[in-house]
Amino acid sequence: MTFWKNEAEPDQDKESEKELSMEEEFWRLEKNAKNGDVDAKVGLAEHYYNGQVVKRDVHNAFHWYLAAAREDHLEAQCRVGEMYESGTGLPEREKNPEQAALRWYLKSAEGGNAKAFFRMGEMYHAGRGVLKNEEKGMDLYTEAAERGSTDAQFRLGEIHENGEGVLQNYRYAQKWYAKAAEQGHTDAQGKLGAMYDLGKGFDGADKALKWYTKAAKKGNAEALYRLGMIYNDGRGVKQDYYQAYIWLIVAVAVGHEKAGQARNKSEGHLNYDQILDAQDMARNWVEDNTQLQHLVGTRDGGSQPQTDG
After folding, report:
1. C-alpha span between 279 and 275 (Å, rounded)
2. Using CA atoms, how far apart are residues 36 and 156, in angstroms rounded to an integer?
3. For residue 110, is it within any domain?
4. 308: which of 94, 106, 252, 291 is 20 to 30 A away, CA to CA?
5. Domain containing residue 254
6. Is residue 236 part of a domain?
7. Is 241 inside any structural domain?
8. What pTM did the predictor assign?
């Protein structure tokens, strides 16, 4: 059976107005950047990097990030480090990009940029471009986390949950996942839900439901799948195949590998009208959720997904 067809035509007038305003913004940024405005240089770099208004041009993006970085713009310094590390948009003469990345991360970190501490933590903890030093990596992750980096908080949660170079400690994992989750980090919300759901040091079906739901609404495939299974199995909630089916339809649409089989099992407990109604609910939910639209559309090559059950 087929669902999830988008019958609404885009409002072309509004799209045109949006495109025009973005073009005006781009030309304004270019003018100001050439006149020396450091924030405009960063904004212009973002346009080139993301392919907004103009064709994506990572070399021009690198040029403008570097120009801003040389004027001590902390975020630009970190972005230059990231581009060196990934080898994106670099001049051909660069022989040791990872060492250059580390230098720019250090400059940014010296100014207090939490993300730069996190990036250096990644390099040292994994031994990427530097001699592996998990202890130094952990120190850098912790510094970044304490400065508010949700990525660092999430990574510390993973390290403690899995015992990566440290003793496995669910309490520390829960602490760091919670810090990131409370600031809206989607993957941390899903992981925190899983800790409560799977009893990793904590019992709390209501909290599992809370965090899974927050992550699922932002398109986290694992959270969508696990929410479906909670309702399918009746773990901590009243068993509800209809609710399970809705969550699992969306989990399939965003690409969860196991969700298709689970969805089909839930479907077997519903009558024809319930199936159609649940499919309508799932479709309407995605159409009203821009984050889910993006995930579904990206996976389906940019068109609205169609799923055959």
Report:
1. 6
2. 39
3. no
4. 291
5. 217-309
6. yes
7. yes
8. 0.84
